[in-house]
Amino acid sequence: MNRTDDSRTRAERAHAGVRPFQGTATRPLSCPMCGSCRVGSRFCTECSAELTPPVLVTHAVGPVWAVNGHVFTVAAGEDHRRTVLGAVARLVDETEPVRVVVTDGFRVTKVVLRPDGSSVAEGDDATGWAGPGVQPVTPAQPRASVVGVHAGAGASTWALLLDLPEAQLTDEPTGPVVLVCRSTPAVLNAAKAVIHALGTAAVSAVLVVADAPGKPVPAAAREQRVLAGAVPVVPVPWLPRLRAVAEISPQLAGQLARPVQRVTKALLGAQSNKEKAE
After folding, report:
1. In the chain, which residue ranges form alpha helices assigned H by DSSP?
2. How far is CA 179 from CA 84, 176, 211, 239, in A?
3. 38 secondary structure, DSSP code
4. How would you classify the pairing of strands 145-148 and 107-113?
5. What is the Cα–Cα distance from 106 to 274, expressed in whole angstroms?
6. Which of 96, 208, 222, 256 is the most buried (most CB within 10 A)?
7. Using 50, 70 and 90 to split pLDDT, how confident is the model at 150?
8. What is the structure's pLDDT at 24?
9. d(Cα 173, Cα 201) in Å, to the nearest integer?
10. How far apart are CA 82 and CA 249, in angstroms?
11. Over the stretch 160-218, which tens digit does the pLDDT of each residue have?
12. In whole angstroms, what separates CA 35 from the centre of its chain?
């Protein structure tokens, strides 16, 4: 088929009211260019036409944004990444990753929005457009509270990252607790005293946060094994991005999404094993 015939065919299909995209936005049943049903997930196998163009996001001015020409406003105080990508998700209504191109002045960023609301990005503003899902991280156990064994344990940081409430050792426990301590022999020994005071049934797990890069010192490793004999222990690796951080910004939370997910999964697994043992 030559170019003239191809153009005539497309015009005839349009005149006849044939919809070029039949099926979902990510997997059309036929190619809008040549009409072939031999289509892949992104390109037509016959004419190589792109079947799923990216969603176009444009920052107009101030709080005004547009998604594929649909204009809306990001309210003051809202996280623009979540608001804009939420608008993309509602527009395409997809169950597979969606490609998004964000244009903000001269800056262009390519984003892949996953079905769970998380996103990865590359380009001029990649840090601002990559992040975790819109839904909060699933807590290790309903109504569990994060309690620091000692000052500087990182309890406030991990309570925020895990979307769990923080409590103090002096508070009366209203539910299970997740203890947080550093990986040093002294504080691990202090954690054992706290577990003894609270009772093993009240402690869901202990987050042992690395106090430095590399493996813990032998004495700390021994104390950690002893601790694991009483309650589930979840080691937390050294995360350089958390050094000297006053608050967790949405951008930083996005960068830490993977280690936070691993810690969350470990907490869920530890709690599940504890319930089976009981």
Report:
1. 3-15, 80-92, 126-129, 155-161, 185-198, 218-228, 250-255, 257-277
2. 36, 10, 16, 19
3. -
4. unpaired
5. 53
6. 208
7. very high
8. 38
9. 12
10. 13
11. 888 888 999 888 877 889 999 999 999 999 999 999 999 998 999 999 999 998 888 99
12. 38
Nearest to 67 by CA among 50, 88, 47: 88
**Structure tokens given for 223:** 């104390």
Neighbours of 53 (CB within 10 A): 12
Rounded Cα distance, 124 and 18, in Å: 40
Kind of pairing, strands 233-236 and 98-104?
A: unpaired
Instruction: Enter the tokens of residue 151.
Output: 């000052």
Q: Which two tokens stand for residue 134?
A: 């819109």
Query: pLDDT class for 263, splitting at 50, 70, 90?
Result: confident
**Integer Cα distance of 109 and 9 in angstroms:** 36
What predicted TM-score, i.e. pTM, was given to this entire model? 0.50
